[in-house]
Amino acid sequence: MTLTANWSYPTAIRFGAGRISEIADACRAAGITKPLLITDRGLADMEITTRTLDLLADAGLGRAIFADVDPNPNEKNAAAGVKAFNDGRHDGVVAFGGGSGLDLGKLVAFLAGQTRPLWDFEDIGDWWTRADADAIAPIVAVPTTAGTGSEVGRASVITNSETQE
User: Where does residue 27 fall: left (phi above 0), alpha (psi -120 to 50 degrees), or beta otherwise?
Assistant: First the structure.
C-alpha cells in the first residue's frame, strides 16, 4: 500500500515554555500592527491574558481585548466581534484560548472584510468560493488548552442561535 496525502495547513507553529514572550514578533511576522486579542470571558482577567496584553502594549501594538465569547460561539458573538474589530480599526487578530476563543477569533478576522453575511459561507458545496480571500485579516492563534487543534485549522465552529445547529 502506498500512502499519499496533501497537507493544506502551512501554519508556522512556535511552541515551548515562555514562547508567549514572542507574541509581538509573531504579530509583526503576520503583518499585524494593531491587533485585537479575542478570548473567552473566563480567560479575560487571567494573568496569562493580562501578561499577553502587556507584551503587546509594551511592543507598541496597543492593548485591545474582546471577550464576549460564549462557550459555543454564535453569530451574535461574531457580529459583536466584527464591530469591535472595525470600530477599533484593527488590522489583525490574536485568537487566544481554547476552541471557542480561537474559532471566534478566526471568524472575526475572516468576516471583518467580507461583504456577505456569515451563513453565506457555511460549509456547503463550493460556498467557500464566495469569500474574498484578500479581505481576510491576519491571525496569530495562541492555544491555552490542548486538544481542539483550532489553532492550525482554517474553519470555525459557530452555533446558529436560532436553530441551535
Answer: alpha
57, part of any domain? yes
* Residue 129 counted as domain residue: yes
C-alpha distances out from residue 92 to 59, 100, 113, Å: 15, 18, 11
Q: Which three cell numbers stand for residue 134?
A: 484578500
158 part of a folded domain: no
Mean pLDDT confidence for 62-68: 97
CB 64 within 8 A of CB 37: yes
Cell numbers standing for residue 3: 500512502
The per-residue pLDDT for range 8-63, each reduced to its tens digit, is 566 777 777 888 999 999 999 999 999 999 999 999 999 999 999 999 999 999 99
Here the cell at position 93 is: 487578530
CATH code (residue 36)? 3.40.50.1970
Note down the domain range covering 124.
Answer: 19-145
pTM of the full predicted structure?
A: 0.90
What the block records as the C-alpha cell of 26 is 509573531
Give strand ranges (E) for the chain: 35-38, 65-66, 92-97, 139-143
CB 56 within 8 A of CB 63: yes
Residue 155 falls within a domain, yes or no? no
Residue that the C-alpha cell 501594538 belongs to: 61
